[in-house]
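Let's practice the habit of predicting before peeking. Look at the sequence and jot down your guess about where helices and strands might fall. Then scroll down.
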Amino acid sequence: MSEIRVVVVDDHQIVRDGLVALLGALDGVEVVGSAEDGRDALHVVAETRPDVVVMDIQMPHLDGIEATRFITGKHADVRVVMLTMNEDDDTVLAAMRAGASGYLLKGSGADEVHTAIRAAAGGGMVFGASLAGKVAGYFSSASAPAQALEEPFPDLSERERTVLQMLAAGKSNDAIAGELYVSNKTVRNTVSAIYAKLHAAGRAEAIVKAREAGYGRD
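Done guessing? Here is the structure:
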């Protein structure tokens, strides 16, 4: 299995260098670049095309959320994991809507960061233990869909609806491919088509929209 290519983005050099050293020592991870702010991150990502970006939020020139929006919008195959001190509700949800595939607090252990990077690279989503309840609470409190005659998201095909249901249930691309007996590439193409039809910046925003429409509810 090839190594997961990672870019580290943080405006504090000591933190950035520490993350580069930490991640570079993890099995199956290769740090291919680093950036000191969101604007620099856009150039580094374009040059190195990593699998995962580990992104701080509060940075000069371009913050992590806006940088994530640009990156996930332009590079659909690049995943972003936020690693920050900020845990307020609005920021967590803004990161999800921008397309982040994970959200961890600084101070997370190496194992937790490693798990998040692997999950993001595999098409999944991970939130730190202290944030998982908050995210679950948002999904559970999302407004129930209005009873209407029309099916939500009429532009989706039946296959795309099935995949969206599975996305909303929190399943990774690998799990979806296994259950539908199709290749991972087919799932990635279907997910990309769903993003386009839902006008979603990435996986997190698609899941939010799907959950608000009643998808993923048992």
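How did you do? Residues 142-149 have pLDDT under 50 and may be disordered.
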